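Researcher: Good morning. I'm working through a list of sequences from a screen, and I'd like to move beyond sequence-only analysis. For each chain I'm collecting a predicted structure so we can compare shapes side by side. This is the next one on the list. No need for commentary yet; just the structure.
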Amino acid sequence: MPNVASDARAADDLDRALGNAIRLRRRSMNLTQGELASACGISFQQVQKYENGANRVSFSRLVQIAQALECRVADLTGALEQPEVAPADFEFLKLMILPGAVDLLKRYEAMTPEARRLLVDLLQSTKTEPAKASAAAIFA
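Model: Good morning. Structure tokens for this chain:
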């Protein structure tokens, strides 16, 4: 018979989405997991577990994290409160936690509209799947 107590405590998609929101906010502030952990009085391993959705974030800890990230709890949970919007936001958060995604967007924002269009056209013209594309293939 499965252990109901441990199953009830297991992280789910919402826990992972909250972890992604925390990671995104932390990265946008150029904070390391260690710096966030220090501000909250926890280990960086615990921050990793929260961000990966392996451990659930209690409300009191969520308030601490939001304060450390200089935002409101609602800023971290807003997308989770609207089920009709949440799936798209979850996908966006998954993309935003990819290494380099925030840096790429910052550079994209600094580009002229014409340069943005050319970049998007170039990326759309590649025949490889994005996960398998290499810099050599894109710029060949």
